[in-house]
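User: Please predict the structure of the protein below. I'd like the answer in structure-token form so I can feed it into my own downstream comparison script.

Assistant: Understood. Taking the following sequence of 215 residues as input:
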Amino acid sequence: MRQKMVYLLVSMLVFSSTVGAMASAVNLAHSNLESTDSRDFTHTILGEFGTATTCVPCKYAHQALKIIYNAHWYPFYYVTLVRNKNKHALQRTIELNLQREPTVWFDGGAKKNEGAEDTESCLTNYNASIKSCGNRVVSDIDLSVGVEWLGAVNPNPEDGATGVHVEPTLQWNLTAFNIYVTVDNNEASDYDGHLHVYVTEVDSSYWIDKFHFLE
């Protein structure tokens, strides 16, 4: 067994919570497109959703991803890479060679779905990609993650300030923390992998898309 500790300085990427409040969402969530699949996946699937606040068809991808995640059909999580609002998200979409918005990469690009015409087709395509990735043979690697909160910096008003208005608006320009990732390789040979650690919000509070939904 080989263990190494990686200390990472991670910037905020936003976990997508954007889903239109369309009536069809309820019906799709209970449809027979791809209901709960009880098969044993070899690992948890990660989706990386490349989008921008100016993207029109991204609303369908947003809705499909949210339906799949909330339905708990699979061991599945996803993050939203709002490329026109976050430089780190932009860099990751460049690494993944984004050509069209929306694009969703599963398992780091093992499967990729580009474009979106409607929520139902996105559901069908994403379900197929997730199931395909779930059957992949993967290395026997264990990860554990710890967080050390370093507190908020640059508060406004400053700590200990006097003469502050009785109803001040508290703001912090930056927050800081350390992420500790332990990687355990249970294989007999060396493991050569690419480690990404996303620090996200469960519910986004940052950017609004063209339809006034949170990205």
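That's the full token string. The first strand starts at residue 2 and ends at 8.
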